[in-house]
């Protein structure tokens, strides 16, 4: 089963995999730090990862396949 992230979730996952803090991610994507924390939780829940190191490794392997497209109609959950 493939994991599909919505565009904002994908961006957060990408920045997390680069080692950015929640504060730095919030600055980059133009949200509050609290909103960013929610995105981080969503990404962890969707990918099944429990920490930033696991997510960084997951993103290296699966990141390109996790991006939602308009045609996929993905809602940020596992694709079937």
Number of domains: 1
Calculate Rg over CA atoms: 12 Å
| Distance linking N and C termini | 6 Å
What fraction strand? under 5%
CATH topology: Arc Repressor Mutant, subunit A
Sequence of secondary-structure elements: HHHH
* CATH evolutionary superfamily: Winged helix-like DNA-binding domain superfamily/Winged helix DNA-binding domain
Question: What is the class in the CATH system?
Answer: Mainly Alpha
Characterise this structure:
The chain has 80 residues and is mostly helical. It has a single domain (7-65), classed as Winged helix-like DNA-binding domain superfamily/Winged helix DNA-binding domain (Arc Repressor Mutant, subunit A), CATH 1.10.10.10. It has helices spanning 7-17, 22-29, 33-47, 52-62. It is globular. The mean pLDDT is 87.
What can be said about this structure in brief?
By secondary structure, the protein is mainly alpha-helical. 56% of the residues lie in helices and 0% in strands. It is globular.
Sequence-ordered SSE layout with sheet pairings:
Layout: H1 7-17, H2 22-29, H3 33-47, H4 52-62
Helix pairs in contact: 1-3, 1-4, 2-3
Keywords summarizing the entry:
80 residues; mainly alpha; Arc Repressor Mutant, subunit A; single chain
């Amino acid at each position: 089963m493939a994991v599909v992230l919505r565009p904002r979730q994908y961006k957060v996952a990408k920045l997390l995999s680069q080692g950015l803090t929640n504060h730095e991610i919030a600055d980059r994507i133009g949200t509050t730090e609290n909103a960013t924390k929610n995105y981080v939780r969503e990404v962890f829940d969707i990918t099944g990862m429990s920490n930033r190191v696991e997510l960084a490794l997951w993103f290296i392997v699966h990141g390109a396949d996790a991006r939602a497209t308009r045609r996929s109609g993905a809602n940020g959950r596992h694709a079937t």
